[in-house]
Design a protein that fits this description.
The chain is mostly beta strands. The chain is built from two helices and eleven strands, in the order βββββββββββαα. The strands form two sheets. Strands 2-1-11-10-7-8 form a six-stranded antiparallel β-sheet, with no helix packed on it. Strands 4-3-5-6-9 form a five-stranded mixed β-sheet, with no helix packed on it. A hairpin with a 2-residue loop joins strand 1 and strand 2 (11-15).
């Protein structure tokens, strides 16, 4: 399940697919947007098991994806989303979160090629153990 990065007005949220996120003017919401064109509980962004999506909750001024007003639609990183106005409403910038590197790959990425070559690699073959005699 990939994380989604949401950026709005210089703030960034990394969205975890295990929960949904409420957007609106409500100070108790997950992403608070202080703009009169945005409804109190404007929309929700959530992972549906196959991808990220946004659902408008009957907002007064609407949710717009690529300039078209939507009730519910899939989100793809890079897709422009505006709340409250198709052209100049608050814009949500969406991007895919960087995949975390495994510890070994991260350690090797920090080494020079000579350092990586000089380190012994784990043996692929183990000699059978001798049975112990009593």
């Amino acid at each position: 399940m990939p994380e989604l990065v949401l950026e709005l007005n210089g703030r960034t949220w990394t969205l975890d697919p295990s929960r949904s996120y409420s957007l609106g003017r409500d100070p108790q919401g997950d992403v608070v947007i202080d703009d009169a064109r945005v409804s109190w509980r404007h929309a929700t962004i959530a992972w549906n098991g196959q991808g990220w999506g946004i659902e408008d909750h009957g907002s007064t001024n609407g949710t717009y994806v690529q300039g078209a007003r939507v009730q519910q639609t899939a989100l793809v990183p890079g897709t422009p989303v505006h709340l409250g106005n198709a052209t100049d409403g608050p814009r949500l910038n969406l991007s895919a979160a960087a995949a975390p590197q495994p510890a070994v790959a991260q350690q090797q990425a920090q080494q020079t090629p000579a350092q990586a070559y000089a380190q012994p690699q784990a043996a692929a073959y183990q000699a059978p153990q001798q049975p112990q005699q009593a």
